[in-house]
Amino acid sequence: MKLFSVQIPELAKCSVLMRERSRVEETIHAMQRAGAGSLQVISDFDMTLTRFAHNGKRVPTTHNILDNRLLIDEDCTKKVNLLNTYYPIEIDACRTAEEKLPLMVEWWTKVHELLIQQRIRKDMLARAVEESSAMLRDGYKLFFDRLTEQQVPLLIFSAGVGDVLEEVIRQNHVFYPNVHIISNYMDFDQTGVLRAFKGQLIHTFNKREGALSHAAGLRELQGRPNVLLLGDSLGDPDHGEEMNVEETRILKVEERKESYINSFDIVCW
Ligand code: TMP
Ligand code: MG
Predict the structure, then answer these.
(1) With a cut of 70, which residues of the chain have pLDDT below it?
(2) Is 67 a catalytic residue?
């Protein structure tokens, strides 16, 4: 126990909750013994790799970053800001995933349709990210640098907007070759105007299917049985569930401790 808290002093903080501390310790020791060559990291993006808030203000999600006059008009801004309506549902511990699912599809579909109507231009995305207050979490540089040094694949599974997500990590200088992104990507026409979103819609509660089909195709993940899974939503622990791997689930959350502690091994709040 002492050795453990010396090695990872953060885990001794009172803001860190664990249902079964001794089992988590054993798992981490086993993962350490197996080494970097056995590890893969799967992470959510918005509010997991990015901060939830900064100086009392919410940090924008990848969707929120698109709310910029370079990309959408005032009327669209009014219609597209549905976070306050739907995010409480997404993270509501009292509703089942089955109850939430149709509402999540409704949210994402409405927003993507509104964005397509705006004829967003690809060449304006980088500026919108620059002008936004997007912010990765404290310590992100060390996290990304260490993983790339050790050649540990980092899979970012995000129900956000892939093109914006890429630009956020590019502008933070951490879009390394070990980083793989599975997200909702925009489909632009030949003139660089948004005409659709590519592939099947990814929302918070269907990440599991997306994770499975994409992970199966990634050679980098073969022979890496240990998974560190990071998320902020109760939909997130599903990512690695059927991948037949040992997982340690770490989560950032302000409240709803009880349900989170039943879903994740480590909860940081
Ligand atoms: P994530 O999977 O990387 O966390 O990204 C999904 C988040 O995006 C999810 O928590 C809700 C948020 N979101 C918005 O902020 N605005 C939107 O319009 C939509 C559809 C989702
Ligand atoms: Mg998230």
Answers:
(1) 1-6, 208, 211-212, 234-235, 237-255
(2) no
Catalytic status, residue 73: no
Residue 3 domain flag: no
Q: Name the pTM for this structure.
A: 0.89
The whole-angstrom separation of Cα 210 and Cα 196 is 19
Q: What is the pLDDT of residues 60-83, one digit of tens each?
A: 999 999 999 999 999 999 999 998
pLDDT at 43: 93
Domain count for the chain: 1
How far apart CA 248 and CA 24 sit, in angstroms, is 7
Q: Which residues of 224-250 are buried (b: 16+ CB within 10 A; e: fewer)?
A: bebbbbbbbbbbbbbbbeebebebbbb
CATH number at residue 65: 3.40.50.1000
What is the distance in A from the centroid of ligand 1 to the CA of 130?
Answer: 19
Residue 5 lies in a domain: no
Residue closest by Cα to atom 13 of ligand 1: 63
Residue 4 lies in a domain: no
b or e along 68-93 (b: 16 or more beta carbons within 10 Å of the residue's beta carbon)?
beebbeeebeeebeebeebbeebbee
SS3 178: coil
**Ligand 1 pocket at CB < 6 A:** 44-47, 61, 63-64, 82-83, 87, 90, 107-108, 111, 158-160, 204, 233
Q: Which domain holds residue 155?
A: 16-268
Q: Is residue 8 part of a domain?
A: no
